[in-house]
Amino acid sequence: MTEHDWNIPEPAVLNRVRTRLEASATEATEDVLATIVSVEGNAYRRPGAKMLFAADGTHSGSLTPGCLEDALQKAAADVRDSGTIQYVTYDMMEDDDVWGLGIGCHGIIDVLLEPLTAQYQPAVDAFANREDIAVITVIDSETGVHSRGDRAYYDPVDDRFTIPAGGSDNWPEDALADPARKMATHGRSTVLTITDAGNELTVFIDGVAARPELVIFGSGHDVEPVTELAAKNEFHVTVVGFRGGIPLSERFPYADETYATSPGSIEDVISLHDRTYAVVMTHNFVDDLLTIETLLNSPVAYIGLMGPRERFEQLLGELSESGATVTASALDRVYTPIGLNLGGGSPYQIAHSIVAELLAVHNEQEPAHLQSHAGPIHGRVAAEILKEDS
Amino acid sequence: MTEHDWNIPEPAVLNRVRTRLEASATEATEDVLATIVSVEGNAYRRPGAKMLFAADGTHSGSLTPGCLEDALQKAAADVRDSGTIQYVTYDMMEDDDVWGLGIGCHGIIDVLLEPLTAQYQPAVDAFANREDIAVITVIDSETGVHSRGDRAYYDPVDDRFTIPAGGSDNWPEDALADPARKMATHGRSTVLTITDAGNELTVFIDGVAARPELVIFGSGHDVEPVTELAAKNEFHVTVVGFRGGIPLSERFPYADETYATSPGSIEDVISLHDRTYAVVMTHNFVDDLLTIETLLNSPVAYIGLMGPRERFEQLLGELSESGATVTASALDRVYTPIGLNLGGGSPYQIAHSIVAELLAVHNEQEPAHLQSHAGPIHGRVAAEILKEDS
Q1: Where is the XdhC- CoxI domain (chains A, B) (predicted)?
Q2: Can you give the pLDDT at residue A376?
Q3: Within a domain: B107
Q4: Domain match, A162 and A253 both
Q5: Do the beta carbons of residue B137 and residue B151 sit within 8 Å?
């Protein structure tokens, strides 16, 4: 029987890719990695979504709600047999073109299917090291230098291109660096046509951003559903507890990392940076006070504090009495009471509201119903990112 | 080893109560049911939250994030030994009264602990039949007729009070019916003091509303995370699929009920009423069309449709051509694209956004950050409900 992990988070797909590469005795596995390159209209998944067709018959991830997976499996078998990358367009409009507009089973989806080989290692390493990376693949080339399937990687931190061993060189790095950096850091993917010495080169830039990092301070049992829902929503989850007892890693199986420390020694065990989302739920005033003080003096992107607003004001009063200064920009990053106002009161409902807020803040969305928004849901985003001032 | 299901949804606690009552050979189990009566300030859980201390040492549910559970366990043992209901106030301010305002471990919580007996059966029956009920318990009485722990149940549909066998009669039904109905239908709980023939009677009215009912139309694998997150957020989940294959109950273990039918025969298998939340994600235009037509002509509270707005407009065009009329009030209940704009694109992120919208609509909240709200989060709600015009 084949096993289909349709709904596992994208990081779990990449983790599976990593495991399969590691387990392979040779440079080339017999697995096939499929990635959505582009979609017409409002597809279920967005460009960059990945699905692994492993040689053992297991599937990880999904590109559609199920309508295309049989066809993809056949295409993957072709790619496995031929050993060459393929770029396939699935025009599901034709099946039912009376209806025109559609989703999932009625759209046009371009998919890149590639044999999973050591060539993909830079993407896997970046994932493991929690770094952003852009995976660049040639779709069409008039240059004579490149051909379909040629691959380059771009590391936005070092502003550096990596070409896999045996790969063709002479990439138009100047033209690619800026869009590759934007896609990598935003975790978006797009097709880009650039003119290189008078000839058009069309590439797919697949930005694979590091997971946003959630650090939860606290070890009450209410931490558990927050770790679960955050992990399922693709956050890298760290739990920092200030009390002994049962090891935190046992208590919070959804956490990627756990640390037991004292509230005054947080930065001895973890580093806080501008991609850190911090949730404070120790339910202890002194622990919260010391944690909040550390967080306000750090560059973290988000500080969510459980409890009423008045309690935070009292924390601020204590900080002020102790001579600490708190900047307005630090206060702007504080969300208390934590979460969106979804109205629920159970542990899962509270966790759902917290993770909904984390997603909205991370994706720079002001909470609203999607129905109040005109236009496509997640189309055009990559195009808008490219237009941003560098 | 004892087993603690801290974070299970409230319906799972009630289900456990039901199972324990069923399994008991006698009228009285040796289990103890604890219910939050009131909280001062912003507690983690709200009044009505329940926790079962079973005689076998297992615990289901939680009243705090862990700070009170040891004390509650001792109190439960007392109640088990004495066989009498107890009303206990936990003043955790005293532990740390420098800090004043607090949550969870620094508030004042009143808890009712009762021996679980057949007396509780009406609440359990209402839960099993998916009906609202108010559980009324005397806290203090000057009437001479009642004493602490006396119990009555109120059924808001039949406007009927039920007194457990052997219980005291002569309840001030006229004064209790309206608040009991409001608490039952809203699923809120409050303490109420009424004057009965010149004497004060203080009761705890614990409204246990039927779970909101979610019906998902579709059977793609993207339905799976929606069933999971909705069930964890306390919806009663039904999946209606229009395709054969692997039995839906196997594919969607989180669903309470599953039905395979045709899109023209939906109401042959389920009833649609004003507490039904409908999510349409068949990814098939004709199936969606027939489903939406049925839903628009039904009293369902919410119709969420996956896909772009334009697709819904095309569906409406088809309906119009076929001579169907669609009222403005029906259209007001349509949410498409479905979900809140949390910005995620993975199956879980899409499901998270859908369930966040379901919670917000069910709880009559306009999506926003809680931080933008002044005042307590979920305090005062019961008081506001009582003030509503009857």
Answers
A1: 32-91
A2: 45
A3: yes
A4: no
A5: yes
Q: A–B: how many Cβ contacts below 8 A?
A: 279
Upstream peptide bond of B367 is cis (omega within 30 degrees of 0): no
- Sheet strands side by side (includes A213-217): A257-260, A236-241, A213-217, A276-280, A302-305, A334-335
Across-strand partners of B190?
B205
Domain count within chain B: 3
Q: Is residue A96 domain-shared with residue A225, that is, in the same domain?
A: no
User: Which among B313, B332, B366, B369 is the top mutation candidate for probing chain A, defined by the most A β-carbons within 10 Å of its own β-carbon?
Assistant: B369
For residue A31, the enclosing domain spans: 4-121
**For residue B212, pLDDT beyond 90:** yes
**For A348, which of B233, B308, B346 is closest by C-beta distance?**
B233
Chain B residues with CB under 8 Å of A101 CB are: 308, 310-311, 314
Residue B382 above 70 pLDDT? Answer: no
Q: Is A206 on the interface with B (CB under 8 A)?
A: no
Assess whether B273 and B298 both reside in one domain.
yes
Predicted ipTM of the assembly: 0.91
Q: Do A224 and B6 touch (CB under 8 A)?
A: yes
Q: What is the pLDDT of residues B227-266, one digit of tens each?
A: 999 999 999 999 999 977 788 999 999 999 999 999 999 9
Nearest to A101 among B105, B229, B311 (CB): B311
Q: What digits encode the pLDDT tens for the residues A222-273?
A: 999 999 999 999 999 999 999 777 889 999 999 999 999 999 999 999 999 9
Chain A positions touching B42 (Cβ under 8 A) are 307-308, 311, 337
Picking from A233, A310, A341, the nearest residue to B352 by CB comes out as: A233
Residue B296: inside a domain: yes
**Which residues have a Cβ under 8 Å from the Cβ of A240 and sit 6 or more positions away?**
A215, A216, A217, A258, A259, A260, A261, A266, A269, A270
Final residue of a structural domain among B210, B236, B255: B210
Q: Over 90: is that where the pLDDT of B48 sits?
A: yes
Residues B17-37 have pLDDT tens digits of: 999 999 998 988 999 999 999
The verdict on B40 and B103 lying in the same domain is: yes
Same domain for A339 and A261, yes or no, is yes
Question: Which chain A residues have a beta carbon less than 8 Å from that of B7?
Answer: 221-222, 224-225, 347-348
Residue A229 near chain B (CB below 8 Å)? yes
